[in-house]
Input
Amino acid sequence: MEDVFLEVLELVRFRSYSRAKFLFGPEGAMIVGRNGSGKSNLLESISFLALGKSLRGVPDSDAAMDGGNGFGIYAKFGGEEEFRISVVYNRGRGKRIHIDDRPLRRISELLGKFQVVSFSPEEVHLLLRSPAGRRRLLDMLLSQVGGYVWYWQRYRRALLHRNRLLSEGKPSRRELKPWDLQVVKFGSEIVRRRMELVRWMEGKVKMFYEVLGGGEDVAVLYAPSFPVDGDIL
Output
C-alpha cells in the first residue's frame, strides 16, 4: 500500500459536532482536550473512513447528532496517492460511501484504502476476557490488507451452510464433505494469517517492552483451539 495520510476531515452533524473541519499533516497529530470535548468522537469518525463503520460497534444511527436523521463525514487524503472518501448516512436511505466520485457497492471495496489501528484504555479487556475480542482485533487489522476479507467471507459462508445441514437433521457424509473441505481450506488460511500477524506483533511488543525497561521475557502467542501442524505455516 502507498503511504497516505489524512489531510482534511469535515464532520456534519456527527456525534457532538454540528459542523467542524480539521487539518492534518503527514507528520501526524496529537489530539488534546478535556473530557467530553469530542476527542473520541473525532477518532470514531476516522474509523468510518477506514472500515465503513464505528469502532464502537454501534448502529450507524447512534452517530447522528442529537438523534437526528443522519450525518456526513468528508475526508481528503494526501501523500503518494491523493483521493477523497465520503460517508453519508441518512435514516431513510441508509449509508452511502464514495471514493472520489465513485459510489461503493460493498464495504469490502473500502477496506485497505486507508488503514487504521485503534487501541483505547477500555480495550484492556482484550487481555482479561474471552479470546473472541482478541480474534476480532486480529480480524479487524487483517481485513485492511491482502484479501483477508475474501477468505473470511467464504469461511463464514461455508460454516453457516454446514451448521444449517447439521441443525436440520442427520446429513450424510456426502452432503457434509464439500462444506467441510471449504471450512478447512478457508479456515486454515485465516489461521495462517492470524499467526503471521501475531508473530509480527510479538517482535514489536518485545522491542517496546525493552525500551520501557522491562526486565523479564515477554511473548505474544497465538493458541488456536485445535492442533496446528507445519503445513499451515
